[in-house]
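User: Design a sequence. Structure:
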């Protein structure tokens, strides 16, 4: 479906996947995780899974960032209200930092209970704004004095040399 995305390697072997459903409301609940509401404003991520040999290599983080960008992009001709506004997920304590790096904010303990360990709810409150924000450092080039020289922007991106996008960043900065 629209909210199931798979990552594959150059040989088309499955590396991992991210899946979710949409729900009404502003927080994850047992009900919101059981039923897909196509017009729901909250995108609920159910799983972020990577093959064991790809874990702890940044694959899950980049997969999730690309997933957020993809689901936040407004398809041509679509109404803005047709897109989810926010994205939420629950995680065990050991994965909270991963999701924070992807742009999620920790809300606290989740009301959803699965097993004995506590789960934490995290959310991207403004999906479109967060999905298209790149890590950026602005600096002064060709000088040792702040506020002089040439303005430069260093963008940490996984866009693999998208020249058109780089030209837009250069023009903005």
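Assistant: Done.
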């Amino acid at each position: 479906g629209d909210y199931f995305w798979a990552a594959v390697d150059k040989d088309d072997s499955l590396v991992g996947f991210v899946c979710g459903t949409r729900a009404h409301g502003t927080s994850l609940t047992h009900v919101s995780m059981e039923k897909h509401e196509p017009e729901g404003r909250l995108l609920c991520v159910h799983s972020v899974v990577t093959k064991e040999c790809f874990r702890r290599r940044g694959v899950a983080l980049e997969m999730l960032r690309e997933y957020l960008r993809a689901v936040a992009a407004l398809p041509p001709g679509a109404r803005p209200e047709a897109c989810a506004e926010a994205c939420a997920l629950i995680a065990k304590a050991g994965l909270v930092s991963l999701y924070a790096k992807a742009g999620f904010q920790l809300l606290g303990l989740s009301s959803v209970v699965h097993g004995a360990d506590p789960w934490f709810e995290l959310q991207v409150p403004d999906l479109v704004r967060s999905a298209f924000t790149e890590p950026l450092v602005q600096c002064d080039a060709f000088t040792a004095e702040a506020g002089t020289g040439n303005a430069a922007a260093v963008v940490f991106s996984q866009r693999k040399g998208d020249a058109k996008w780089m030209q837009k960043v250069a023009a903005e900065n």
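The chain is about 20% helix and 30% strand. The radius of gyration is 18 Å.
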